[in-house]
Amino acid sequence: EMENAPITKMRGTWQTYRGIPLMPTFHPAYLLHKETMQNKRAVWEDLLAVMEKTGLPISDKQRGYFLNH
């Protein structure tokens, strides 16, 4: 059960809360405090997963953003 798991273990994996799918990710303040390319890329990948699940279009530029940075 992921209920009490730290965010570092939960982020990037789909969870469900009251039947609603959730994608745990880092808080923006964490990114400002621990600003690494690895953390930024992790959050970006989480957001891409949400976009994909909700049917939002993802451009090649968005999909490959961290491949070029």
Task: Describe the 3D structure.
The chain is built from 4 helices and 2 strands; from the N terminus they run αββααα. The chain has 69 residues and is mainly α. β1 and β2 (20-22) form a beta hairpin. The longest helix has 18 residues, at 37-54. The chain starts with 6 loop residues before the first helix and ends in a 6-residue tail after the last helix. The relative contact order is 0.14.
Q: In short, what is this structure?
A:
By secondary structure, the chain is mainly alpha-helical. The protein has helices at residues 7-10, 28-33, 37-54, 60-63; strands at residues 15-17, 20-22.
Instruction: Count all strands and give the number.
Output: 2
The main sheet orders its strands as 1-2
Q: Which spans have pLDDT < 50 for at least 5 consecutive residues?
A: none
Shape: flat
Strand content: 5-15%
Q: Helical segment tally? A: 4
- The topology string of helices and strands comes to HEEHHH
Mean pLDDT: 90
Rg, Å, rounded: 13 Å
User: Residue share in helices?
Assistant: 40-55%
How many angstroms separate the termini?
A: 36 Å
Report the structural category. Answer: mainly alpha
Which sheet architecture does the biggest sheet show?
2 strands, antiparallel
Task: Give the total of domains.
Answer: 1
Topology:
Blueprint: H1 7-10, E1 15-17, E2 20-22, H2 28-33, H3 37-54, H4 60-63
Antiparallel strand pairs: 1-2
List key phrases describing it.
mainly alpha, 2 strands, two-stranded antiparallel sheet, flat, 4 helices, 69 residues
